[in-house]
Specification:
By secondary structure, the chain is an alpha/beta fold. It has eight helices and twelve strands. Helix content is about 35%, strand content about 15%. It binds 6-O-phosphono-alpha-D-fructofuranose. The site of 6-O-phosphono-alpha-D-fructofuranose has 10 residues, from helix 6.
């Protein structure tokens, strides 16, 4: 066996090793952020392990309650949320937590308070749990403005103020293609779409520039759909429609973290009106339309919305 390849195979890079290596580049750092990330990783490892055993552990099925979105909570939702909340509080590095599963924000007791605000969806795509489709955890991290005076405004910051974001399906760090061959949307909502979205999806199916039609891929689990978009390119859309004028996806713990990652990978993310990360949320469970993916693909939908505005 080639010794170099063999050495590479056993020189394992884990997220913990990566984070600590990064921290060691800043000798003046106290390691607070590394400690926070290590507690998020703990939560992610629990979710991944538990989801893998869910069928055996009889953890599938409804918990009999519904979350703030009115969606039926499954046992794994409840368990995962509890694990993340306890891990984040015990880290001693957080002051406010916003979870998709909790109606109100959690203000950490001052005795355990740190300087970070974490917004997260502990188990995104939970409706897909029973059929084995990829699901995941999405998170974003803000810095508190004043640790002595923590308010809800600390998590109602624009996404561009996020220090970091991530999800539990770890793909290799990647630069996505500038233009892709896949579009990802729930076509079942087509009758309720606005004109620009309708025109864009039509262009995906019937290109007017002689290019091949894009392929439609839609899992219905944002983590899986965005993960594929990051790796293969193309565009993921959850537009507003007549039923849901603000779209379905939540700004703080779905739109912002995935937009943050997409921009880092060279793509972009648009709400139909503005750059997603420029949004300033007014409520912790606020929703927004979202068009995110390869830079040039998103440019096309931006041009259609701009043309619509000029025609109005
Ligand atoms: P629809 C899962 O319930 C979720 O919040 C996202 O993960 C996913 O992108 C979206 O909703 C799917 O919604 O209406 O297409 O089923």
């Amino acid at each position: 066996m080639d010794h170099e390849a063999d050495a590479h195979r056993t020189d394992l890079m884990t997220i913990t090793r990566y984070v600590l290596n990064e921290q060691s580049r800043y000798p003046e750092s106290r390691g607070d952020f590394s400690i926070l990330l290590s507690h998020i990783v703990l939560g992610c490892k629990f979710v991944c392990t538990t989801v893998n055993k869910a069928g055996l552990a009889k953890l599938l099925g409804l918990a009999g309650e519904t979350n703030v979105q009115g969606e039926e909570q499954k046992k794994l939702d409840v368990l995962s949320n509890e694990v993340f909340v306890k891990a984040l509080i015990s880290s001693g590095r957080t002051c406010i937590l916003v979870s998709e599963e909790d109606e109100e924000a959690t203000f950490v007791d001052p005795s355990l308070r740190g300087k970070y605000c974490v917004v997260f969806d502990p188990l995104d795509g939970s409706s897909n749990i029973d059929c084995g489709v990829s699901i995941g955890t999405i998170f974003g991290i803000y810095m508190v403005k004043d640790k002595e005076n923590v308010t809800i405004d600390d998590v109602l910051q624009p996404g561009k103020n996020m220090l970091a974001a991530g999800y539990c399906m770890y793909g290799s760090s990647c630069m996505i293609p500038k233009k892709g061959k896949i579009y990802s949307v729930n076509e079942g909502n087509a009758k309720n779409w606005d004109r620009p979205t309708t025109k864009y999806v039509e262009k995906c199916k019937f290109p007017d520039d002689g290019s091949s039609p894009k392929s439609l891929r839609y899992v219905g689990s944002m983590v899986a759909d965005v993960h594929r978009t990051l790796l293969y390119g193309g565009i993921f859309l959850y537009p507003s429609d007549k039923k849901s004028p603000d779209g379905k996806l939540r700004v703080l713990y779905e739109v912002f973290p995935m937009s943050f990652l997409m921009e880092q990978a060279g793509g972009q993310s648009f709400t139909g009106k503005q750059r997603a990360l420029d949004l300033v949320p007014t409520k912790i469970h606020e929703r927004s339309p979202i068009f995110l993916g390869s830079y040039d693909d998103v440019e096309e939908i931006k041009a259609l919305y701009a043309a619509e505005e000029n025609n109005d």
